[in-house]
Design brief:
- There is one protein chain.
- This protein has about 850 residues and is mainly beta.
- Helix content is about 5%, strand content about 55%.
- The protein has three domains: about 20-100, Phage tail protein beta-alpha-beta fold (3-Layer(bab) Sandwich), CATH 3.55.50.30; about 105-180, Sandwich (Immunoglobulin-like), CATH 2.60.40; about 230-760 and about 800-865, TonB-dependent receptor, beta-barrel domain (Maltoporin, Chain A, Beta Barrel).
- Strand 38 and strand 39 (about 645-665) form a beta hairpin.
- It is elongated.
- Pfam families: CarbopepD_reg_2 (PF13715), Plug (PF07715).
- One of its GO terms (molecular function) is siderophore uptake transmembrane transporter activity.
Length: about 850
């Protein structure tokens, strides 16, 4: 090759290939075009400078026309001027420029959903995007956060009983939204509605939500609207003896239920020995019952969580209601302190059964005029709600409720010169909460609360000793107190629609003063008992951390993954627990949902019961050095579906194992024996419960209601009891059926009915007895006694229980108020259901027989109420 040819080849290699292989973002180019498409401009750059573009015509649109004049400008600057206005991204890959479709920008919409009239937060309202099919629900404080693409046009907000609303979302959407939903003009009473979303779209299983209308629609016992009795109408929930005495959920005992009122725990959830609920139903906004699959944010109990939210008060206008019935009178008032800024809600209720019972006692028992009889309960609620700023809100709530019974007889009989008996118990709750929105995706709630439960009884009996004119006196006192003070912080973080993350921390101080008693008989040589100043006072500290994530892993596969870690410090002993929680939901063809869950729960406090029925005398005691905390494992699986947006079907099976439960190991009574440390007189054992629940429910229309069926087993085993053999729990019931119907008759009339059926519960009965043994005493006449022999614990089953309750409500709207009459009949066909059984002696034949005690026969009631 000649020298000239070599020089020419070198010049070509130097000039042309450099433009193809040696470019970078700082390479200078010149582009001058007018009204050319981006595709043509890219082709021009490729031709002139050898810079190749790679893209997919189906994803990147280069048909937009552009004009540009760029002389000797940097390559990156020219491409930004050309492509960025068209939202086209670019990147270098080797020696090529890759053109990418626009990155979908997102916007986070957040705010509160409230009642348009009262400005009350709406819990569980649905926010839904029909285009992306993404959605969320408001939390316990009405807050929501949803991250969506900017091209989302409309969101739909809905809540049961309210008019739906459409919200237009714009690119520059900012700030905390305040969405107000008006009530439906033709609102019908609703019975049960878990949430606004279909049942198969909820990952949470073993949960039921009761709006206030569900409770008000039920038949009433003696005119009282009752939350706990409504919960007893749900599958998996047993009301105990004849529907009174507590809640027994999936084979658990009453102490294994965590009852929360605005986040504060309650340790006795009933009035009048379990016949009526602790709380006036008119102040309740929603009630959530968790029977299993517990989210990680809940801890401290094994069997259920009952989360009750009360009304917050109307911020716009004053209104209230009042009612008078056969057994109680109540009123509620709410309104603004500062309009649209501060509101209050106040409620009070007082019963008067003594006015009804006292005449019967005078006639039947000869209660003298100088005697006295009182029996009543009362409760009081106060709540204040203040908006500090659009991001901050503060709440204060207070509850006080007490029961009291007094029996006094000053009449003289053969030996008795008068007697007096008093009994009382009650709860006190106070809480302050602070809500704050830190960012569109992060919400927090801080709660400080105090809860106390106390019980007392005292008696005095004056009598004449045999062959003496001296007046003797027997007197006794007993009291028990427990209290907790806690601080809790909860965070709700929603980074994207596929994740809802909750995490937080709790610290609680427990104080126990159980079984403090004194007893004295002035004529007895035995030293008086006095433990009032040396009772077993114990303090404990409980701390916990939790985190959970509601995660949409696939379009049809969802998971709730969480962990709850806790520690309990008592008497120098440290107890630790790490409790994993897992809930799964898979959408099957035909819109069926298959669900499964596993939960591990820990409980650091126990209820020491001294009888076959749940009474206020039962002792709350903590775990100690001798008695470890209870814990359980529960596995649940089931299917669920909503039909025609009106009918819901759910079927669940469960197995629960429980450990470190306590039971008395001897026949001691807290009233007549100085038991010292209670944990020296109990035995620790295990329990198992398993079964299946099915529920068919109609949510809308003139006729609403549900039918539920439960098949269950519940067993216990304690070392040293029942020859170490397994025996049925005292509320083991094989079959349970609940049928509830509410029908709207025209504009003014509503009819409701509920039918309940329970299999017989087990009791411990003697198999033989021995008589004729004397028990001489220097200050009492000799009396024959009977010694019973027992074979096994709970060796006898009582009769099956069933009853029908009906109610009719007539409402009429007046100019300034709404009046209503409610007529209810409890136990319509007067079924003599057993409350408990005792061994009695026939006074004629002197033979012993088993006597069934029934406390709730047919009971009609009438209630008049006004709402203004």
């Amino acid at each position: 090759m000649s020298l000239a040819a070599k020089l020419l080849t070198g010049m070509l290699i130097f000039c042309f290939p450099l433009r193809v292989f040696a470019w970078n973002w700082q390479t200078k180019i010149t582009v001058v075009v007018k009204d050319q498409t981006l595709e043509q401009v890219c082709a021009l750059i490729e031709k002139e400078y050898g810079i190749h573009f790679l893209y997919s015509p189906g994803l990147v649109n280069l048909s937009e026309k552009v004009s540009i004049t760029a002389y000797n400008q940097r390559l990156k600057k020219v491409l930004e001027a050309l492509l960025c206005p068209a939202h086209i991204r670019f990147a270098r890959a080797g020696e090529q420029i890759i053109l990418l479709p626009p990155k979908k920008q997102s916007i986070t919409v957040n705010g509160f959903v409230r009642d348009a009239v009262s400005n009350e937060n709406l819990i569980g309202a649905t926010i839904y995007d029909p285009i992306t099919k993404q959605g969320t629900i408001t939390n316990a404080y009405g807050f929501f956060s949803l991250t969506l693409p900017v091209d989302t046009v409309n969101l739909f907000i809905s809540y049961i009983g309210y008019q739906s609303k459409q919200l237009t979302v714009t690119d520059n959407q900012s700030g905390i939204l305040q969405i107000q939903l008006p009530l439906e003009g033709n609102l019908q009473e609703v019975v049960v509605h878990p949430s606004s979303s279909p049942l198969q779209e909820q990952t949470q299983m073993s949960k039921m939500s009761l709006p206030n209308t569900a409770v008000k629609g039920m038949p009433r016992l003696l005119g009282e609207v009752d939350i706990m009795r409504t919960l007893q109408s749900l599958p998996g929930v047993n009301g105990g003896m004849n529907g009174a005495g507590g809640l027994y959920v999936r084979g658990g005992s009453p102490d294994q239920n965590l009852v929360l009122i605005d986040g504060s725990p309650v340790f006795n959830s009933s009035h009048f020995f379990g016949v009526f609920s602790l709380l006036n139903a008119n102040v309740v906004k929603t009630t959530d019952l968790y029977k299993g699959a517990f989210p990680a944010r809940f801890g401290g109990r094994l069997s259920s969580i009952i989360d009750i939210a009360t009304k917050e008060g109307d911020m716009k206008s004053f209104h209230g209601d009042a009612a008078i019935g056969l057994i109680s009178t109540k009123f509620n008032l709410e309104g603004p302190i500062i309009k649209d800024k501060t509101s209050f809600m106040i409620s009070a209720r007082r019963s008067y059964p003594d006015l009804l019972i006292k005449p019967m006692l005078v006639q039947d028992d000869g209660l003298g005029r100088d005697g006295d009889f009182q029996a009543f309960f009362y409760d009081f609620n106060l709540k204040v709600n203040h908006i500090i700023s659009p991001k901050d809100r503060i709440f204060f709530s207070f509850y006080k409720g007490d029961d009291f019974l007094l029996l006094e007889d000053k009449e003289e009989s053969k030996n008795t010169q008068g007697s007096k008996f008093q009994l009382g118990w009650g709860n006190t709750i106070a809480a302050i909460r602070w809500n704050r929105v830190y960012s569109p995706k992060l919400f927090s709630n801080v709660t400080a609360n105090y809860s106390q439960y106390s019980f007392f009884t005292q008696f005095e009996n004056k009598y004449l000793k045999i062959d003496s004119v001296n007046l003797s006196n027997i007197s006794g006192k007993y009291n028990s107190t427990m209290a907790t003070a806690g601080l809790r912080i909860d965070f709700d973080y929603r980074p994207m629609p596929a994740h809802t993350i909750k995490y937080g921390a709790v610290a609680t101080m427990h104080y126990f003063k159980p079984a403090n008693s004194s007893f004295e008989d002035t004529e007895s040589p035995v030293k008086p008992l006095d433990t009032l100043n040396k009772g077993m006072r114990i303090n404990g500290v409980e701390m916990s951390l939790y985190a959970e994530d509601e995660w949409r892993m696939r379009p049809n596969f969802f998971a709730n993954i969480g962990v709850h870690g806790s520690m309990f410090v008592v008497e120098g002993r440290y107890y630790y627990s790490l409790q994993p929680r897992l809930g799964l939901r898979y959408l099957l063809p035909g819109n069926w949902a298959a669900k499964a869950a596993y939960t591990h729960m820990n409980q650091y406090i126990h209820l020491l019961s001294g009888s076959a029925i749940s009474l206020p005398t039962d002792l709350w005691v903590p775990s100690t050095q001798r008695v470890a905390p209870m814990y359980s494992h529960q596995v649940t699986a089931g299917i669920a579906k909503t039909f025609e947006e009106m009918y819901e079907l759910s079927l669940e099976g469960y197995f629960k194992s429980m450990y470190n439960m306590i039971e008395n190991n001897e026949n001691t009574t807290i009233f007549n024996k100085d038991v010292g440390r209670w944990d020296e007189h109990v035995t620790v054992g295990k329990g198992w419960s398993y079964g299946a629940e099915v529920m068919w429910q109609k949510k809308e229309g003139n006729t609403t209601g549900w039918i539920g069926y439960t098949l269950s087993w519940s067993n216990r085993r304690f070392p040293g009891l029942n020859d170490d053999k397994t025996y049925p729990f005292k509320y083991d019931q094989r079959h349970n059926i609940e049928l509830v119907l509410v029908h709207q008759l025209g504009k003014n009339w509503e009819v409701s009915a509920s039918w309940h059926y329970n299999s017989g519960t087990p009791y411990t009965m003697p198999v033989s007895s021995y008589g004729g043994i004397e028990n001489p005493s220097p200050w009492e006449p000799s009396t024959p006694t009977t010694i019973d022999k027992y074979s096994e614990i709970n060796n006898f089953r009582g009769r099956d229980s069933h009853r029908l309750d009906v109610g009719i409500t007539y409402s009429k709207q007046k100019k300034r108020w709404l009046k209503s009459w409610n007529f209810s009949v409890y136990n319509v066909y007067n079924r003599r259901n057993p409350y408990f059984y005792v061994m009695d002696v026939d006074p004629v034949s002197m033979k012993r027989y088993l006597n069934q005690i029934t406390i709730l026969p047919i009971l009609p009631s009438i209630t008049y109420a006004v709402k203004f």
